[in-house]
Amino acid sequence: MKRILIILIVLFPLVLGMAHAQSRKYISHFSNFKSYYNPSLVAHGGSVAQSIVRNQWGGLPGAPKTILGSVEGDFSQLRKLDSIGIVGRNAAGLVVLFDQHGPFSETEILLNYTNRIRITENHMLGLGIGMKYLNTELDGTKLSPEQENDPGLSRYMGGFAESKVFDFNLGISLINKQYYLSYSLQNVSGAEISSGDDFYEGRAPISNLQAGFRGMLSPNVGLVGNMLYRMQKDLPFHQEFNVKAVMMEKVWLGVGHRVDYATNLQAGFMFDRFRVGYVYEMSTKRNSKMYGSTHEFMVSFSLFEKGKQGVMGIW
After folding, report:
1. Contact 21, 201 (CB under 8 A)
2. Along the 315 residues of the chain, how does pLDDT read in single tens digits?
3. d(Cα 141, Cα 65) in Å, to the nearest integer?
């Protein structure tokens, strides 16, 4: 993607669907889906079922469309035991992501598990592992003119291809009630375990650094901040952060920024066991009007008990 800065609408699907591990999933609500990036953060916010729908660059042909859903269970809430005060000792979760961009459709399934140990009175260390299955389908009838000249893709022109990959993720995190620090490695094997057509040249491992904090500014206003930094050898560094003000324990307003890429505005509402959020994202790339705007909707439901309200109930 580095070499593609200015594009024509007729070639737009190329930017969205470059093969050879050149696609990256963007989620502005990344702080709600931390376990997608790091298995040691599964159920970090308690036992929840949640989902997002993301429509990126709406109105442009071949634009990415992403649906992500997860179910995460804290064993201390499931069985009323093993809790050590901050979050439960053990947790597991399932994440399913469907993404469509240009001629590519991807379905990703993650099974995550974490075990946490107390290291001080107020801190826990989490270790997690995730098993991943990724199915990628290529519709050769939707190739752009430049993709048709790509030797790795041209043989599928007018037809269909499918690739299946098995891999795993590892993660470690330091957790406090008011902040967390974490590191994870995704695609540990580099997609060595695969079958089907070979229109991808492997998938490089991805290193993720995540951190967040939360606290009160006044009795009625709290502040929450999160950051995500991703490193992958065949793509530029990905740096993203957001800051939210939580008011009256019911409403949040925020702003986020993806460095050299996009800025977003965020809003949401908190109920007893239910919360909803919305992000409006604007591209900051050169010729940003060509990329249009992005809309992202999030819904979350606390499974076994009333969710925590206010700043201590949100990341």
Report:
1. yes
2. 343 333 322 333 333 333 333 467 899 999 999 999 999 999 998 899 999 999 987 666 678 899 999 999 999 887 665 444 568 889 999 999 999 988 889 999 999 999 999 999 899 999 999 999 999 999 888 887 677 667 667 777 778 889 999 999 999 999 999 999 999 999 999 888 999 887 766 688 999 999 999 999 999 999 999 999 999 987 888 999 999 999 999 999 999 999 988 999 999 999 989 999 999 999 887 655 556 789 999 999 999 877 777 888 899
3. 19
Give the C-alpha separation, 36 to 150, whole Å. Answer: 31
> CA 129 to CA 183: how far, in whole Å?
12
Under DSSP, is residue 308 helix (H, G, I), strand (E, B) or coil?
Answer: coil
The amino acid occupying position 83 is S
Task: Give the torsion sign (CA, 162, 237, 234, 13).
Answer: positive
Q: Could you tell me which CATH number the domain at 9-313 has?
A: 2.40.160.40
Which tokens is 52 given?
Answer: 């997002």
**What residue ranges do the domains of the chain occupy?**
9-313
Q: Can you tell me the distance from the alpha carbon of 57 to that of 290, in angstroms, rounded to the nearest whole number?
A: 9
The CA-CA-CA angle for residues 298, 300, 304, to 5°, reads 175
In this structure, which amino acid lies at residue 72?
E
Q: How many residues does the chain have?
A: 315
Helix extents (H) in 106-259: 145-148, 151-154
With beta carbons less than 8 A apart as the criterion, state whether 182 and 38 touch. Answer: yes
Query: Cα separations (Å) of 188 from 118, 153, 193, 284?
Result: 27, 26, 11, 32
For residues 273 and 308, give the distance between their C-alpha atoms in angstroms, rounded to a whole number.
Answer: 8
Helix and strand numbers, DSSP H then E, in the chain: 5, 15
CA angle 59, 60, 62 (to 5 degrees): 120
